[in-house]
Structure to design on (496 residues):
């Protein structure tokens, strides 16, 4: 197995460029600070006093000694307040919460996409089936890092003193657990993930591998029910992670549609983007998607519109196109979130009473400070679906063209490579150290080759097809559940 091939060289080059170019050129920083997003500045106390028709109070040392502190400045809520707009720049981004996590994840996803595209071209030009697909490894790492980022955000919610966010995450986690247990008992005739064949391949190959290692009496102590229960627990965890991203997506979608009321084309694209997870769900419902296209009913006969292999390729293209559409509409959703500051001020004007000036300033500033968090909540679910699909294509031996690779057998032959023998010979004392180093390098490469060959023999493409297909479908399902609940919450419950 060629471990030090051109793929590894390109991968190391991409990692080095990402590390060195991050302080100077960052796609994540450009996304927020390219001048297309506008934030709202909080008003100063002098501006609020002028709008309220009174002078700015001067600090009184005698009152401060008597009362311990000055009374907060209050203004009427119905003042004619209009917030000043300013473009988001790189200096403003330094105050954003979780900005470093956002910048690192988005830049890593960009470079992972570049490495994946290179490996796809490389595999089409060169027959490199015996090499490790480095692009697929970058995609898997992006999925893991995305989940870790969502876990960091959820941990922030759990540390909140109010506790409402914690209850929302737990509620969606239990709901996701129930839905996952129902989905996992559905037959493959309806939801064609391929989990059953994937787990069968995994167990059979693992048993063969263990017996080849000399453990003839060893058997797998895990049953299918245990695996499905563990998978359902993972699904519940993912569902709790995607609770607030879905709720936030619903709010920004409604605000973005209202913000673009005079642009019908943008509104259509926004609705298509919001409903894209539903399309992903339908693509794996066999009677609706594959059976309808492969065996379309025409009277008493059936007509094959597309072949089964073509449908697999078409499904990959549809998911990628939907993810690109959602990424293209990122700016509209982020601007809709930033407009919440002015929307809150307009709502405040309709209320009676007085409000502290510091509360107005905190509210406007708080909305902007969480811009990177909102951006992560919008982008990370897209990354999960997109990179799970790319990993499904690479590790599942699918094709972007009209046909797919033939599905490998359930139990391939396990051929373990061995290190090339080193022939003894007479060497000089000066060359003895060099020869020992070369022998160590050869032994290390042989062990790594043996390890990767064992993994490829146990974790076959048929297993990866089932696992990543289910992961892609489940992320879309969680976002559909949380976003639809968010639409109901913001449209009906908030208005009542």
């Amino acid at each position: 197995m060629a471990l030090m091939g051109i793929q590894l060289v390109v991968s190391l080059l991409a990692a080095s460029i990402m590390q060195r170019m991050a302080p100077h050129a960052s796609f994540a920083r450009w996304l927020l600070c390219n001048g297309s997003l506008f934030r709202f500045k909080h008003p100063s106390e002098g501006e609020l006093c002028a709008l309220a028709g009174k002078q700015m109070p001067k600090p009184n040392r005698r009152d401060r000694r008597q009362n311990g502190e000055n009374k907060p400045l209050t203004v009427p809520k119905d003042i004619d307040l209009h917030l000043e707009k300013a473009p988001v720049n790189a200096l403003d981004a330094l105050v954003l919460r979780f900005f470093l996590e956002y910048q690192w994840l988005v830049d890593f996803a960009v470079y992972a996409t570049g490495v994946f595209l290179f490996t796809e071209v490389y595999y089409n030009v060169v027959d490199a089936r015996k090499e490790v697909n480095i692009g697929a490894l970058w995609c898997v790492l992006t999925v893991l890092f995305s989940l870790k980022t969502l876990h960091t955000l959820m941990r922030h919610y759990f540390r909140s003193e109010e506790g409402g966010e914690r209850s929302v995450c737990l509620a969606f986690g239990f709901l996701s657990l129930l839905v996952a247990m129902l989905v996992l008992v559905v037959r493959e005739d309806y939801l064609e993930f391929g989990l059953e064949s994937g787990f069968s391949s995994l167990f059979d190959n693992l048993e063969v591998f263990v017996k080849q290692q000399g453990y003839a009496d060893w058997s797998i102590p895990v049953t299918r029910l245990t695996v499905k229960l563990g998978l359902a627990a993972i699904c519940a965890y993912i569902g709790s992670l995607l609770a607030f991203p879905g709720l936030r997506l619903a709010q920004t979608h409604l605000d973005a549609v209202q913000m673009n009321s005079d642009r019908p084309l943008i509104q259509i694209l926004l609705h298509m983007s919001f409903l894209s997870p539903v399309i992903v769900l339908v693509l794996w419902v066999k009677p609706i998607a594959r059976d309808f296209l492969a065996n379309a009913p025409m009277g008493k006969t059936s007509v094959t519109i597309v072949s089964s292999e073509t449908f697999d390729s078409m499904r990959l293209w549809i998911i990628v196109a939907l993810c690109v559409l959602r990424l293209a509409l990122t700016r509209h959703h982020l601007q809709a979130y930033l407009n919440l500051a002015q929307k809150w001020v307009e709502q405040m004007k309709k209320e009676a009473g007085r409000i502290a000036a510091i509360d107005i300033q905190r509210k406007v500033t708080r909305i902007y400070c969480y811009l990177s968090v909102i951006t992560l909540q919008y982008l990370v679910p897209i990354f999960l679906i997109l990179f799970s699909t790319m990993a499904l294509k690479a590790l599942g031996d699918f094709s972007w063209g009209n046909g797919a690779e033939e599905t490998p057998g359930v139990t391939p032959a396990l051929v373990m490579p061995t290190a090339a023998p080193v022939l003894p010979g007479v060497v000089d004392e000066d060359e003895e150290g060099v020869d020992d180093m070369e022998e160590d390098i050869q032994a290390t490469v042989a062990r790594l080759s043996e390890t990767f060959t064992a993994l490829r023999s146990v974790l076959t493409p048929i297993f990866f097809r089932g696992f990543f297909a289910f992961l892609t479908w489940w992320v879309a399902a969680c976002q559909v559940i949380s976003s639809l609940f968010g639409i109901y919450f913001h449209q009906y419950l908030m208005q009542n």
